[in-house]
Write a structure and sequence with these properties.
It is a single chain. This protein is of the alpha+beta class. The chain has one domain (5-242): T-fold (Roll), CATH 3.10.520. The protein is 33% helix and 24% strand. It has 6 helices and 12 strands. A 7-stranded antiparallel β-sheet has the order 1-4-5-8-9-10-11, with helices on one face. A hairpin with a 2-residue loop joins strand 4 (115-119) and strand 5. Helix 1 (16-37) packs antiparallel against helix 4.
């Protein structure tokens, strides 16, 4: 997927062998997802589907499942989420969050109830690292790669950010076909990383309209920063983070 995934597991030292085994299963899953969906690999199912080498019926069943999920999210986001880019199939705006969330589910199935999986800044956090605090997730400032815009505390939740920090103007408004430039980054916090990831991408494409749209979205909070450094947050965002002064 062109990124790095890290695991932080809260467990007794005596559980180390079980932790390693569970993480190995999760890593195997992520490599499977990469082999199916990576747009960086010519031999992935998505790349071969784009080239016409195979049909959808020839692909792993997960491909059809993901496109169905992408269609659902497209409806939820008024069409601002799209599984195509420059005329090619590209569901990566949803796949990364979905795959990281599934990796987290595999850890929970192995009995690791308190952990944090970070896939290139998209974070799925379960349980808590200590009884008196949740997982702290720092949000990189899109205009200062060495600084943080905010720190979110999460228990059994997800944090996803879409922005220009790493890949520049890589999100396109599907209605205009032009790069989305009104916002430099959008961070979404909620219960589900699959949708938090997709909603962040869609919100970046929406630009200023995203603030009004989030007023209609239950259970998800958002924090956005514009290219001039100004920003906005949904009403509930302040309860889970310390915004910069």
């Amino acid at each position: 997927m062109g990124t790095v995934v890290s695991f932080d597991v809260s467990a007794d030292e005596s559980d180390a062998p079980a932790v390693r085994a569970a993480i190995n299963v999760a890593v195997e899953w992520l490599h499977r997802v990469d082999a199916i969906f990576s747009t960086y690999r010519a031999d992935s199912d998505i790349s071969r589907l784009n080239s016409g080498a195979v049909s959808l019926a020839d692909c792993d069943p997960l491909v059809d499942q993901i496109f169905t999920l992408c269609s659902d999210v497209a409806r939820e986001t008024r069409g601002y989420f799209s599984s195509t880019f420059a005329g090619r199939l590209d569901p990566t705006g949803l796949v990364k969050g979905w795959s990281v969330e599934r990796a987290s589910e595999l850890l929970r199935a192995a009995g690791l109830m308190s952990h944090c999986v970070n896939g290139g800044g998209d974070v799925c956090a379960r349980g808590a690292p200590a009884p008196d605090r949740g997982w702290s997730v720092a949000i990189t400032h899109p205009l200062d790669r060495d600084g943080f815009a905010a720190v979110v505390e999460v228990r059994d939740g997800a944090v996803a950010t879409s922005g220009t920090t790493e890949r520049g103007l890589h999100v396109v408004n599907p209605f205009t076909g032009r790069p989305a430039t009104q916002l430099a980054s959008v961070t979404v916090v909620g219960p589900d990383l699959t949708r938090a990831d997709a909603y962040a991408t869609a919100a970046l494409a929406m630009g200023d309209a995203a603030r009004e749209w989030f007023g209609e979205v239950a259970d998800y909070e958002a924090f956005a920063i514009a290219p001039d450094g100004t920003g906005w947050a949904t009403p509930g965002f302040s309860s889970i983070t310390a915004l910069p002064s």
